[in-house]
## 1
Amino acid sequence: MTVRPFDPVRNAAEGVTPDSAGWQYLSFKTVHLAAGARLAAHTKAEETALIWLGGRATVEGFGTVGGRVDVWDGKPFAVLLPPGVPYDLRAVSPCDLAIVSAPAQSELRPRLIRPADVRVETRGSGVTERRIHWIVAEQDLAARLILVEVFTPAGHWSTFPPHKHDTDDPPRERALEELYYYRIRPEQGFAFQGIYTADRSLDLALRPRHDQLVLVPRGYHVVSAAPGYDCYYLNAMAGAVREWLFTTDPDHAWLMDWKKV
C-alpha cells in the first residue's frame, strides 16, 4: 500500500472528503452563489450543516436565511440537516456558504440556527484573548458535528495553550477530527498554525492565508494571528463520540487561563 504524505493545507472551494483527507468523518467545502443562483442537493447518509459566511438565500422550508455581509459582520445563520433529506436554496444576494458534513444516523428534524441561538464566549486574556461563536456546541442537539467560529485579533494567539484530541481515553480525551477554515482581514495577511505530536513525528509550522483550509487529524495544535491582520476561522469537529474532551500540552498547561463551559 502506498502511504500518501500528509498535506494539511487545502483549497476550501475544492473542499475535502474523508477519502481526500485520509480520515473517517469530516467533509467540507465553500460555495459562492451569485444572486439568483440555485443550490439543490441531498444530505445522503450524512449530517450536514450549511453555514452562512455572508449574504442571504431563500431555503425551502425556512424562508430567507442569512443577513451578515461577511464573517466580520455579526453572528451567523446556519441550517443543520439530518441524513436522508434534500435541500434547495436560491441566493437572494451574492452568498457565501460553508458546507460541513459527516456520516451519521439521526432522526433529528432539520433545524434553523439563528444568530440569537449562537452563544458568544470570550476566551483567554491579554494577547490570548479571542471571541468564540458556538454554532453547534456539544450540548446542542446534533448527531455528529461540533461547529464554532473563532475571531482572533491581530497579534493574538488562539487555540492556546496547545491541546489535542486524537485519543479515545474518556473522561480525559475523545478522538475528534478537526479542520480550520480561515479568513483574514485584510485579505493579503496570514496566520501561523502549529501541529505537532509529543514525539515530534508530526511537527508542522504552517502559514494559512485567506480562504484556505487546514486539516488537523492528530497532535497538539495552536494558532497565532500575524500583527496587523485579524484572523477568523471556522472550526468543524467530528468523531465516533460527539464529546469535546481534550488534553493540553503539559509543557504549557501552566498558561491555561480559561475553563471549558
## 2
Amino acid sequence: MHEPPFLTAGAKTIVREGVIFTIEPSVFQDGDFSAQVEDCGIPREGGGEPITGGCHDMIVIE
C-alpha cells in the first residue's frame, strides 16, 4: 500500500519462494475513521503460507 515491493496489478515485483511479505487491507472513512490489518505471508511452491493469525471478522459497532 505505501512501501515497495508492491503486489498490485501492473507491478513488476518478482515473488520468490520464502520471502516474507505483508498484506495490508485498509478501510478509510474520510476524516472520521480508519482501520488496517497487517498479515504476513510467505510464498511457497504450492501457494501462500500465512504466518500471522487472529480474528479477521469485521465487527460493526453502532
## 3
Amino acid sequence: MSPRVFAHEPIGFNRMPPAVRGLVIANIVVFLLSYVVGGKFFDLFGLVPEHVLQDRWIWQPLTYLFIHGNIMHLLFNLFGLWMFGMPVEGQWGQWDFLKYYFLCGLGGAIAQVALLPHSSMAVIGASGAIFGLLTAYAMLFPDAVVLFWFVIPLKASHFAILYGLMELFAGTSGSTPGIARFAHLGGMVTGYLYIRWWWIAKIQAKGLWARIAGQPQAPRVSRRPTAVRARAQDAEPESSMAEIDRILDKILVSGLDSLTEEERAIMRRYSDRMKH
C-alpha cells in the first residue's frame, strides 16, 4: 500500500483507511453489546490482572482494547484513533498498522499486569494502543502541529513527550486511581521500542546478510515504518526508486551525516523532481 495522499477536503467515514475504519466499527459494536449484555461483561472481557495471572484468562490483554465505560470514553479514544491512526496507516499500510496497534495494546496490558499484579479492578479502553499511535505519529511527523487541550499548539514530538511525562507523574503519584496510567505508558514505550529498535535491527540484519552473501547493496525492506516519504509519479523508474529507498534506509540507520556527496546529490535531484 502506497502512502495515503491527503487532500484539503472533508474526510468522511468511507475515506478512512480500512484498518482504522474496521477498528472504529468494532469498538462501537462492542460498546453497544456491553450495554445489552450487562452483568459480568466488563469483568470477563476487561483486563483484570488477578484473573490474567491466577485464572489464566489470556484473552483479556487483547479484548480489553474494545471495551469502554461510557460514551465519552469511547468518543475520546475514537477521536485519537482517527487523528493519529489515519496518517500512520497511510504510511505503513493496513497490516503493519494493525500489527503495531495490537502490539502497543498488548504492551500496555503487560505493563498494567506487571506493576499491579494483584489488582481486581477491570482495565478497559483502547488508550494503550492509542498512546502507541501517538508515539508513532510523533516519530513519523515530529514537526506536525497538535493542539494541546485543543488550544495550545505544540509540535507532535513535544506533545508526545509532554503527555508521557504527565502519565508518568499521574501513575507514580497515584493521583488518578481510576485511570490505568501504566497501560498508557506501556503502550507508548512499546511503540517507541518497536519503531526505534526493531525496524532498525531488521535493516541492519538485512544489510549484514547482503555483505556476507556478496550482494552489491542491502535489499529493500518491504513496507517498513519510515519518516514521511513522498512517492514519485508512476513514470519514476524502479531502479531510481530502489536507490532512493536505499539512501532513506541509510539515513534512518546512520543519520544524514552519513551520506556521501553523491547520495546527497541524488536526494536533491529527487526533491527537485517532486517539487515540479
## 4
Amino acid sequence: MNLNRLQGKLGYVFRDVQLLERAVTHSSFANERGTGDNERLEFLGDAVLELAVSALLLERFPEAREGQLSRLRSRLVNTTTLARIAREIEIGAALRLGVGEDQTGGRDRTSVLADAVEALLGAVFLDAGFARARKVAVGWMEGELAGLADDGSGDVDLRWKNARSLLQERIQHERQQTPRYRVVGHEGPAHEPTFTVEVHIGDTVLGCGSGSNKREASHAAAEAALRALGEPA
C-alpha cells in the first residue's frame, strides 16, 4: 500500500496520515483485523461532495433553475463517476481489503471504489477543512463537467443559453420572428472538427460563428448577432 503515491495523485498531503489510512480501509479488512473502517468517512464525504458540487454548479450556471441543477448534480455525483475518479487517482492499489474481497476483484469493484473516493474526501475535510476538500472535489469534477457539455443531453445547454435567449427575446419583441440557426460549414478531422453556423431572420444573416460543436458555434453566432445589433453578448 503506497500512500505517498496516492497523496501525489490526490494533490494533497495529509497532516494526520491515520485519516488517510482509515479512508482506504474497507469493512472486509476491518472485520478480519478488528480495526475501524472507512464507512463513517464515506458518510461525511458524501455530504461534502454534494455541497461542493452544488456550489460549483450555482457558480457555473447562474441562470439555471433548481430542477436543472439537480439533474446536473445527479449526473456528476454518482457511483460510475466516482469509480472513474478512483481509477484515475489509482486508489484501488492503496485499498486495505480483506482476503476474500481482494481475491474476488474488490480493488476494481465500482461500488468499493466509489465509496473509497467519498471516504477520502471526508478525510480531507477532517484534516484541512471544507475549503481544501472543496478544492479537491472541484478538481475531480471539472473534467466530468466539461465532458457533459458535449454529450447531447441538453442539460448542459445552460452554458450557451444566455446569448441565444437574449437574441431570441429581442428579435421576437422587435420583429415578431424567431431566429433560425443553420450549419454552413464543417471541416477538420473527426477528432477535432470545426463547425460554422449562421443565425438568420428570413433571408438576412444576423451573425456567424464557429466552434468545435454545433452548440458552441450557434452560441458564437448569437453573440455575433447581438454585437451587430449593438447589444453586448
